[in-house]
């Protein structure tokens, strides 16, 4: 495929991906036919077919003869795909999606902290400590509090030295950004929360895997409990 065709296909993929996340095209909806997409985006049939293949690979759509192109159920979406995660942030994530993110964080981050306590290298410890310095500065308005918090959690994942955990960095970053959107806090980390992060760091640094696991588990459960409570309130209001 010519580079120009590939670039055009990527543009169509991003436009349609965002529209799906924004709800313009909902689960079960039909997308325009390949011929109509050619006209709509003023691109060749080759580029259109490539775009359809890419969206299918990301799990967002199905394309079958005589059935057309349809948005599939979200449980089939590749939610670890970098593009899909970015589109989620551009779309309309709800509290239920946030809860799904937090449920998985609950399964991931305590174990990552435990692995970091066992396998972190000196450079990993320095990276976590640097993130803590940023968080401390953020409490005084000297750094971006949201980015510092994200930096800490990603550094712990990397310190696990497990390649599968490390590749969850984009997922964790998206989950934290969605959480920030719903909490709507100017300060992402309170003094108490900062201290909880310090405690996790110290346990990792001192090679105490079970204690690091337990400390991270407590923080994740507390965040999930807040979201569960918000959902209960929302459901009571709409009942």
Task: Lay out the secondary structure.
Layout: H1 3-22, H2 34-41, H3 45-57, E1 61-64, E2 68-71, H4 82-90, H5 95-119, H6 122-139, H7 145-159, H8 163-166, H9 169-183, H10 191-205, H11 209-238
Principal-axis shape: elongated
Fold-level CATH name of the largest domain: Four Helix Bundle (Hemerythrin (Met), subunit A)
CATH architectural grouping of the largest domain? Up-down Bundle
Arithmetic mean of pLDDT:
90
Largest sheet: 2 strands, antiparallel
Question: Beta-strand percentage?
Answer: under 5%
Over the alpha carbons, how many angstroms does the gyration radius reach? 21 Å
Which CATH class of the largest domain? Mainly Alpha
Low-confidence stretches: none
